[in-house]
Specification:
About 80% of the residues lie in helices and about 0% in strands. By secondary structure, the protein is mainly α. It has one domain. Helix 3 packs parallel to helix 5 (about 90-115). Mean pLDDT is about 90; it is low at about 5-10 and about 10-20.
Length: about 150
């Protein structure tokens, strides 16, 4: 529980600093840290998308930020898979990622509901891609899928 709280606090640090650059995240040599930083970047990009759509009324900028959310989650998942660790035997980082992605999906659902029906296609595609990654992570942790 303390680890979860520490991880959630770590999510707020990049937001206070203006978010991390995805290229800088990709340069992280430690795969587990890269996965954490990629999820932090996804949250920061979500905040950018929310601000672009809700405050600025710019769906194009919001869609670009949503693309970065998707790319960040994909990078986090790929980094965790590259560690070579089993999600069943070493679930710590996988579970942290699953929880973070679940929260991100909830935030995206809230943003989708606030969007015009005409602007929802892109966020629906992003949510579907992230939901598949979430489902794969959860299946790996539960031992339902051999990778």
């Amino acid at each position: 529980m303390i680890r979860l709280a520490a991880w959630l606090v770590s999510l707020s640090i990049p937001l206070a600093l203006g978010g991390a650059d995805l290229a800088a995240v990709k340069a992280e040599p430690n795969l587990e840290k890269r996965a954490r930083r990629a999820l932090d970047n996804a949250v920061a990009a979500y905040k950018d998308a929310e601000e672009a759509y809700m405050k600025k009324g710019d769906p194009e900028q919001a869609n670009a930020a949503l693309d970065e959310v998707s790319q960040s989650v994909e990078l986090a998942y790929a980094s965790l898979r590259q560690t070579g660790k089993s999600p069943v035997k070493s679930p710590r980082q996988f579970k942290a990622a699953e929880i973070g992605i679940r929260e991100l999906l909830r935030l995206l659902a809230d943003l989708r509901e606030a969007m015009s029906v005409l602007d929802r296609d892109h966020i629906d595609n992003v949510r579907a891609a992230i939901q598949k990654i979430h489902d794969d992570l959860l299946a790996g942790i539960m031992g339902g899928k051999k990778k």
